[in-house]
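Q: Entry one of two.
A:
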Amino acid sequence: MTTALYRRYRPETFGEMIGQAQVTDPLMTALRGDRIGHAYLFSGPRGCGKTTSARILARCLNCAEGPTDTPCGTCDSCVELSRAGGGSLDVIEIDAASHNGVDDARDLRERAVFAPSRDRYKIFILDEAHMVTPQGFNALLKLVEEPPEHVKFIFATTEPDKVIGTIRSRTHHYPFRLVPPAAMLEYVESLCAQEGIAVEPGVLPLVVRAGGGSPRDTLSILDQLIAGSDESSVGYERAVALLGYTHGELLDGVVEAFASDDAGAAFSAVDRVVQTGQDPRRFVDDLLERLRDLIIIAATGAGAAAVLRGTPTDELERMSVQAQAFGSERLSRTADIVSATLDEMGGATAPRLQLELMIARVLTALRAII
């Protein structure tokens, strides 16, 4: 049994974090300058590195050569807090979702009084901190405000607004963000190279899109594709089917049908969507994404490759031909109609009808422009 990718590649230093320079740079500067706070609040979307950064900060603070911005990786504390370690007695991780009441807060206060068993600091990491009740936070308030010298707190949450203001105001707040697609694509490409995994063109951009900017979600999706592929490579066809995206050939067919005013081909594409059991809303979303790409190509020309990173060269050439056949005005009008249809499909009970009406509207609008 293999370990999940997101666990095997969990960062162990701030330098290994991707897309979070707004957090890692000031934290490393503070550590180098020995300007360490007693309480930190890490907030942001799920899977973007909050708990991992809390563990890295704990490593930095309790490293035998620290406090340091780069843990040595060899001392007892660093080894115990590594991705393969079993955890440290002096770094206590608490799931606030299940330990969120006054009694839990009182228990934490009692534990905080005792000195660390071996390391420099006793560090409490409260994950899902927004789940702590107001009464629980109030029971912690005095301790967070004036903790013993040997105690540090790190709160991690996806909803910082639910952490009461009196606690928030006593922490150094670091907001995490979703990782930009370009940085994520570069990361998964390097990871596949390290793992020796062959991936067909077009697969990794789909993985990055499905991951939504979350490194953990992205690696979980990639892991699933690798597990379900043969030893030769991760195939595009299988990735499209598993992730539920519309196949590029079908999108090409619809776009070219619009450009050439071929109503038969356009309605046939809708029939394929329905007959193959695809989600109609996903199809419209993917079509809108394709139109966005064509608008970028029409506007930037040869510079589109820098914006649409990860798109195979042959696909860029094909989309360039499609953009020229459309023209900027017709592309913009088509995108408006597709976007409006996507909004209307939220509670639609007859998705095929919605798709066919969208096709009719687009063809009518394009004929009016000619």
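Q: Entry two of two.
A:
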Amino acid sequence: PLHLAAVVSHIATMSILIQYGADVNATAIVGNTPLHFAAERGAVSAARHLIDNGALADLENHDGMKP
């Protein structure tokens, strides 16, 4: 759910999910974190919110790509 909220830059949903324990560095099937998804979509506010809540900007996905 956090990955999807990041894609659509829905900050309120992201905040609730994080408040209830969503892992901001959780990976999807190919290793993308919510921050990868936000960066790919150009969702700057979502990316900033994730980083402010502990997302690591240097995590690589399975292709070696960083957000």
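A: Comment on entry two: The chain has one domain: 2-52. Residues 11-19 form the longest helix (9 residues).
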